[in-house]
């Protein structure tokens, strides 16, 4: 029930409790005219007292209801604000996880280029990318770029496989060709990664602006 409607009901009830008894009293004793005797007015006051008390009770109940409604609205706003702050913090952490995963893969590539025994780090960093992308679907529901994320995952796997082939290859011309393929894949990965991050940053900025 709307607050304005409740206010009207309270006013009608209060007015009814005061006006109707007064009208009944007037028509019952108006034949004697308007009395100038204070005692008669005292009797009229005594007659109205129960109705005034009821009217006061209606006003008090109404004020209590308004206070309760105001408190509920304030609590709801506070709760909504807390939820929004917590969700934005979680969303920011998810964004950081994506950045960390994508750039950690770059670091793992550099290690793997010079030290073959770092292949485990490359596998772990790729797994982090996949996990970060999956988590992002919960916190960036409106951010739909499955082709980009799939392409980054495919490229990271292709780069890993090319590195394995490179280190196993003994033929120098073939190794050179593999290395050129690796560099091309890494450049493509970096370009797509930067485009993805730019789009994600723009999406976050728009969401934050709309939330405010």
What this model shows, in words?
The structure is a single chain. With 212 residues, the protein is mainly alpha-helical. It has two domains: 3-73; 75-211, Four Helix Bundle (Hemerythrin (Met), subunit A). Helices cover 89% and strands 0% of the residues. It is built from five helices and no strands. It has helices at residues 3-29, 38-114, 119-139, 146-168, 172-211. The radius of gyration is 38 Å and the shape is rod-shaped.
Keywords, separated by commas or semicolons:
Four Helix Bundle (Hemerythrin (Met), subunit A); 0% strand; 2 domains; mainly alpha; 212 residues; 5 helices
What secondary-structure arrangement, pairings included, does this model have?
Blueprint: H1 3-29, H2 38-114, H3 119-139, H4 146-168, H5 172-211
In short:
This protein has 212 residues and is mostly helical. 89% of the residues lie in helices and 0% in strands.
Kindly report the CATH topology of the largest domain: Four Helix Bundle (Hemerythrin (Met), subunit A)
- What is the residue-mean pLDDT, rounded to a whole number? 78
Q: Which structural class should the secondary elements be placed in?
A: mainly alpha
State the helix count.
5
Low-confidence stretches: none
Q: How many strands, what sense, and barrel or not for the largest sheet?
A: none
CATH architecture designation of the largest domain: Up-down Bundle
- Compute the separation of the termini in Å: 29 Å
Number of domains: 2
Q: What fraction of the residues are assigned to beta strands by DSSP?
A: under 5%
